[in-house]
Amino acid sequence: MTAFDVIVIGAGPAGAAAAFTAARGGLSVALIDKARFPREKLCGGGLTGRSYSYFAQIYGTPVPAALIETKTAVTFHAFGQELARINDMPAMHMAMRRSFDDDMYRRAVAGGAVDFTGSRIAALDVDQPCVTLGDGTRLTARVLIGADGVNSQVARALFGASHDRTRVGFGLEVEAPAAPDNLTAPLRIDFGAAEWGYGWHFPKSGSSTIGIGGVLSRNPDLKTAMSAYLAQLGHDPAMPCKGHFLPFGDFRRRAGRRAVLLAGDAAGLVDPITGEGIAYAMKSGQLAAQAAIEALAAGQADRALHLYQQKLRPIHKALRQARRLRQLIFAPVFQASFVRAFRGSGTLRHLYLRLLAGEIEYDQVARATLRRLPRVLGQVVARRLSPLLRRERPEPRNGTRDRPH
């Protein structure tokens, strides 16, 4: 079989969700990936409540308990200062991407997708669309879904580049040996461990996933920042690490062209504050497949992108709001005010945790932040003007010299 309704390139969370949804919707699906599963994947492996919820929506079952470890405590740090420890946060789950992604890939194949994993793509035509594999096999489809990550081959074929290097993020990560207290240790998030980014320490039973990520253009020496972060956490600063690009909220406003759709990291669907990508990868894969199902049912494959764009609106809205809020967290002029606000406001911390849990969206966090904005701006202006006022303050008059004769 070489002619399919849908070809999905990439069998990670976005591609697996797309392939599973399309196959369950009655479409013939080819699932392609250069890797054979299970395979290693560089990622912190944090599954927020939103990720957990999306998994259940797509597959009709909770994430298998064997794939995750659950934490309910977290410590927040920012720019070298501890902000808070919260011991009753909504559940945050840890997963190893090797086994988590393999589970979703197997669900897609069991659901009816034809397995072409372990296949290199020799040629890609996004106008047909069709794919030629390394062994010469030629596959055609009415809809193509590119879920092939931040270095997407599909995005390059559509737009000439997979991402904008001036706006993309970059992350470094290690799997460090597990500490004796890993099972009880809280998660740790460090805002500002990298410029316009953050660091993370996710203690798991078998290892500690440690990494930092930030906007690439603002971090010319990310390796030095990573070494400093490892040393701060008590690990060998010379530990070898791996790096990868992070589409830090630099999403594509048009996630494809006609019957070719981009999902997950290939579409830049990564939260610019939390760095969460798994949730939006799964959800966008599902939405892309649903758009394909609707377009093909109407006999209008070229309308797939139009339908997909409509479905993506809530995700795009959340990412735009997160990008605006990122200014208030990472811009140097606001850093001190952010630290004070987050440390002193139980409301802000609570909202942030509910956001991670998937209970609320960024519009509610934005409204709470904007209510504090006048006070924050006043503090910033006062700090900026204070040195000027001190310099311009007139010298006290000499009482004797100024006494009239």
Brief synopsis:
The chain has 405 residues and is an alpha/beta fold. The protein has eleven helices and 18 strands. Helices cover 39% and strands 23% of the residues.
CATH topology of the domain at 169-246: D-Amino Acid Oxidase, Chain A, domain 2
Tally the helices: what do you get?
11
Would you tell me the overall average pLDDT? 87
Radius of gyration: 24 Å
How far is the first residue's CA from the last residue's CA?
110 Å
Number of strands: 18
Q: What ranges have pLDDT less than 50 throughout 5 or more consecutive residues? A: 380-386, 399-405
Q: What is the SS-derived class?
A: alpha/beta
Percent in strands: 15-25%
Descriptive overview:
- With 405 residues, the protein is of the alpha/beta class.
- Helix content is 39%, strand content 23%.
- The chain contains eleven helices and 18 strands.
- The radius of gyration is 24 Å and the shape is globular.
- The protein starts with a strand and ends with a helix.
- InterPro entries: FAD/NAD-bd_sf, Geranylgeranyl_Rdtase_fam, Geranylgeranyl_reductase.
- It comes from Pseudooceanicola sediminis.
- This is Geranylgeranyl reductase family protein.
Explain the layout of strands and helices.
Blueprint: E1 3-9, H1 13-24, E2 29-33, E3 46-47, H2 49-59, E4 68-71, E5 74-78, E6 81-86, E7 92-95, H3 97-110, E8 114-117, E9 121-125, E10 130-133, E11 138-146, H4 153-159, E12 169-177, E13 187-191, E14 197-203, E15 207-215, H5 222-232, E16 242-246, E17 256-257, E18 260-262, H6 278-297, H7 304-330, H8 335-344, H9 346-356, H10 362-392, H11 399-402
Parallel strand pairs: 1-2, 1-11, 2-8, 5-13, 11-18
Antiparallel strand pairs: 3-7, 4-7, 5-6, 9-10, 10-11, 12-15, 12-16, 13-14, 14-15, 17-18
